[in-house]
Amino acid sequence: MAIQGNQISSFTETIKSMRDIIITNIVLTGQIPAPTFEEEQKAAMLLERFSIAGVDHCTTDGIGNPIGIIRGNDRQKPPIFVVAHLDTVSDKDVDHNYMVKKNTIVGPGVLDNSVGIGVLASLPDLFRGLGLSFDSDIVLAGVVRSIGKGNLEGIKFLLDHWKGPIRGAVCLEGHKLGRLSYGSEGLRRCEVECTVYPGPSLKHRYPPNAIIVLNEVINQILQMRFPLRPMTRVMIGIISGGLKHGNAARSARLGFEIQSDSPGMVKDVSDRISDILEGMAHEYRVNLKLKIISEQLPARLEFTHPLVKAALNCIKALRLEPVVIPSESELSAFLAKDIPAVTLGITYGEESSPPGLSKIRIDTMFRGIAQIVGVIKAIDSGVCDEQGVD
Amino acid sequence: MSKAWIETNTFHHSMFSDIGELVKAKEARGLSISLCLPTLNEEKTIAKEIVILKSELMSRYPLLDEIVVVDSGSTDKTLDIAETYGADTYIADKIFPWLEKCKGKGENLWKALYVTRGDIIVYLDADIKNIHPRFVYALVGPLLLNDTIKFSKAFYDRPIALDESKTLPSGGGRVTELVIRPLFSLFFPELAQILQPLSGEYAGYREVFEKISFPIGYGIETSMILDIYKMLGLYSMAQVDLDRRVHRNQSTRALGRMAFIIMKTFFDRIEKLGRITLAKELFDEMIQFVMVNNEYIPDVYRMELVERPPICEIDEYRKKFPPTDSS
Q1: Tens of pLDDT along A183-204?
Q2: Which domain holds residue A363?
Q3: A102-111, pLDDT tens digit by residue?
Q4: What per-residue confidence (pLDDT) applies to A329?
Q5: Domain boundary among A264, A296, A328
Q6: Co-location of A193 and A175 in the same domain
Q7: Best mutation target, A22, A102, A363, to test chain B (most B CBs within 10 A)
């Protein structure tokens, strides 16, 4: 049976009374460094937390995703997935010391996505505290190899190897409370590496500067015209290169993403950038290598999909302003397999540089968790059972 | 040197990870357990210690009966935060207020005996960055599951394998390796088996702690081992490998001052034990030098060895905790 708005509001108080368990899980899992491809220790801690919470079945799949399964009451119903990415952007040598204050938790990766993992680890206790049981099995998964070069390998592996249908899914992200994602853009994440031919080359009397070459690449990308519909853009996110202040850079690297609602446009823009690189490599006589780091196809639920409506109702019942944004994360993997799914934000916070000062607010996360529980309950009541993904 | 103790009384925390069994043992013996965190400006770490230990060892498993913070006069938000997360907080100066005021970790631990109510007291430093429930359950495990063990002490790291199930650290901290281990080796070789005698995490029975005196400062760990050794013997003690502990690093100068008071405590104890006779009293000033404007200036710290007597000698304490047959 679906959950009513006032019931979700009442969840908040019970969840608040279980604050210590949630903070404990955020700190115990979050203080273990987990850069992409090095998540084993954090995965083991998440499994330990599932086990301590009395989860019926705890395991790790072939790629290293830690998984806990809470058995449902109806063996005929497909499972509901709740996932959060386990990896964080902070390196292993960063001091992962979390500081708990009166209303904040501060530390590397706490917003993206230790709070998501901590909440995932807390769900078994929270369900028990709220007196909730489900018809479906609830599959709790911390997924590895998600961000950057991980290219969502963890969630893709999990879904590729899962036998049987999946009823629906909820993806947990720390930022920010009220966030609702039910679609993902088409995306191609690329890296351009520019290297000047090494040694006393006959090719260059005055060797070019790799940074200047990439600067010219950026200029040419900026001159490209993109349609508003389907929405298409190139986001330039990373540039690095050179060794010394006084020497021309021999190598430099540019990272960017092509984002579009249309998979055709992603490919088209990518091809045009390849042409630019080819021309410039010839003109400057340098190596310009384009590498595709990751790629995803656009997919979305309709706004009228019952899961989206149920999620919006939960958010509004908690007197939150929904913020609808596309997601590049695990959501796209579910939608790509026609599994209805949404991504929900848990609390407010700030990312920071250096990462040690990233923080989350404690008092707001209880409503964030209440909406998650409400949406899981809505899926269990059948909002995903009829309509598929468009 | 007997090798048996290190083999029979050294444990790994994983041996006590079945917390449910520990709770059963505690209840079967009708015991209660108090955790005491002595503090001075620990706002960065105090909350997570309280939250994690309360969540796992009070709410999830009723292993601990109370968490008590005894503070030396923090000027930051230590006490405010500790209260927010549900610890019972006390200012050391307000416990036995008629006594002369002293500041130090040992003072807080001693006074904690009066404000706590447990039969077993667990003492943890409040600056542990990687706090985990094992810091408590692994220390009380040997006490609950072994009738002869009355005191357990933590050690950390594990680079040397003892056998398939046990590992030993290569050494303690700098003060341990440069000061206390040489002293133990010279006077009490048996005690050199204690791998990190200065670790700030230990647990024991009230009936033991109430009968020993407490130096108010850094000497407390040294005196505690020597006094329990003298009172009950080595086999009343155990040590537990907690894997890893991350805490604040201290400067060599600060460690020098720590070493000074530890050595004073040690010489005091061995003189009382009749192992040495000092022809003259030891001095109370630690002299270090700092360079100011190309000149070496002495930086003198006065550190007297001040001790609280066994708390069972205090009337108020005896009223609250009347002596029993076993004590």
Answers
A1: 988 889 999 999 997 655 555 5
A2: 5-184+298-380
A3: 999 999 999 9
A4: 83
A5: A296
A6: no
A7: A102
